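Hi Y.,

Following your request, here is the sequence exactly as I used it, all 250 residues.
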Amino acid sequence: MYPHPIGYLRSLLVFALLLTIKAISRVFYRHDVRFVGDVPDHPWRGIRLVAFLNHTSLFEPIFVGAVPNAFVWRIARYGVVPAAEKTIRRPFVGALFRFVASHVVSITRERDHTWNAVLQRISRDSMVIILPEGRMKRANGLDLQGQPMTMRGGIADILEAIPEGRMLIAYSRGLHHVQIPGRMPRAFKKISMRLEVVEIAGYRKEMLARGGIEQFKKAVKEDLERRRDLHCVDETESDDRAEPRLSRRA
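Below is the corresponding structure, written out as tokens. Let me know if you'd prefer a different format.
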């Protein structure tokens, strides 16, 4: 079955944009990105869900500079990204974020029809990219309202909608040294991230074992907060260390 020409054209445009961001990122930033835990063969294959933890800046698309082109194409062709309505409405940034994936769905902070639209976009080929904290961490380590950065329950809904495949957990080590919200970005910095590949079927089974379907959402939130706190260390700790190379086994 041939792809719809308009949808395929959009994918090509998104791919071109992401490759441009990747090229800019590799020119202006050093990348310290590596896998943690057990690394499977071909870790970039079979990813159905990307959970991006420790959301600190709208400048985070520069992390695309560290991923293989084949994975960039998957984002462009099959990516589903829930994006905050507030972000999408911004004059320049909003226009950019509308083209960071095949399907960018504007959502509110409420559990309403906008979230249902995200779930309805998930097909057997989709790769959902989500920021489970649902808001941005400020330089003081808290959100805009001064509250701790906790996980929200939407990622549990997505795990229920995607029964198998792999989840890529991306632990950002922070970008406040690159761009604090509301300020101009700084170049020639090192950006750090750790990656972990988790089999979704096994992860779902483990979370369900902690309390059944009634406690599934709570178990997922607590587990991801634990993993984030383990791997998302302070960004300044690794800013001046030697840069390891990212494994590109595709």
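The radius of gyration is 17 Å.

Thanks again,
Q.
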